[in-house]
Amino acid sequence: MTQEAHDGVVAFVPLSAGREQVRLGRLSVGEIGPVHDPRSLYPYFWGLTLPWAMTSYKIAPARDIEDARKQVLERINDWLQLANLRPNG
Fold first, then answer.
1. Which one of 17, 28, 43, 58 has the minimum C-beta count within 10 Å?
2. 3-state class of 45 per DSSP?
């Protein structure tokens, strides 16, 4: 599934201080934001969770906000494929 197939399904909603909320439809499933530790090798992080599985939260590093978005879209694509969901059209 390409990024275009996510149009209307995944959204990145701006929050304060360079952070973004990740939404799957109308449901918040994660966050992207800057790392505030000067020792960190990566300046950004992203985290996703399935709302009904509290232990599924994953935090991962990213080189920049575009890299974080790309990784988030790949992970959500994995979720959609596991659920056997296909985009319309």
1. 17
2. strand
